[in-house]
Design a protein that fits this description.
Blueprint: H1 2-21, E1 22-24, E2 35-40, E3 47-55, E4 61-69
Parallel strand pairs: 1-4
Antiparallel strand pairs: 2-3, 3-4
């Protein structure tokens, strides 16, 4: 039971660390994206928040939040 609690606590702390370093994209922002780790896109046809986790040319991990239309829009 202790092991499960530790794993849950670790998982929460990782999510919090990523959330604290997330950066909101603004027009003209210079990005150094060497490799995409993961991408989360909004659903449907509405504009929503997308999240991009990537590594820069120095291997540092970044999280970028930006607005885009959903991935399931057939219009």
């Amino acid at each position: 039971m202790k092991a499960i609690a530790c794993l849950l606590a670790l998982g929460c702390s990782i999510d919090l660390a990523q959330a604290e370093t997330a950066e909101h994209y603004h027009y003209g922002m210079q990005l150094d994206i060497a490799r995409i780790v993961s991408q989360t896109l909004p659903q449907g046809c509405d504009v929503g928040e997308a999240r991009l986790v990537y590594l820069d040319s120095l291997g540092e991990r970044h999280t970028l939040i930006y607005q885009r239309i959903g991935e399931n829009c057939n219009g």
